Amino acid sequence: MATDEKPNYEPKDAVSVAIQSTLLMGGAGLFASAVQNTLTKANVSGWGVFSRSGGIIGLFAAAGGAYSFSKAAAANLREKDDSYNPAIGGFFGGAILGMRFGNFPAVIGLGAGLAVAQGVFDYTGGRFAGYERDPNVDEWERKEHLRYNRRRPLQETIEQLGEGRGIYAPGYRERRADRIKEHYGIDVPRT
To answer: How far is Cα 78 from Cα 151, in angstroms, rounded to an integer?
Structure first.
């Protein structure tokens, strides 16, 4: 008989995660502000990073902190680690980004957009590189196996693509010499 026990959930420290994320995203915002300051046409000083485009630093830091805190807090309140937590965090992070525009539809729209993006990204595995591969299989052997399984016979390739572009069937030189002789009357040596 199967037991209906939930797996043990380990609570996350939402405050420390939020502080780390705020600092990290604040650094990313500082970098973005520095790039924006560098690309201005007006001659501004190095302090323009903070005075001219410094709002980006705070925006990045606040959005990153709100995302991480709400993601960890949602996981702690729900006692689950699933795709809803990044979606909740994405909503709050996107809402912070929407506040820059100063109207309610932007807050809701960016919050909903980032919530959907984060939820779907986490639901599909949370990786840009594709599915997780078996660490026990050598990469060279895996690729050789894929090449062997997906290799098509030469005759099938020639039938679909035709000859040329580096794909030549046996007897190509003779057929080419005959074709040139027939069309242009030139004898091509056959080797």
So the answer is: 49
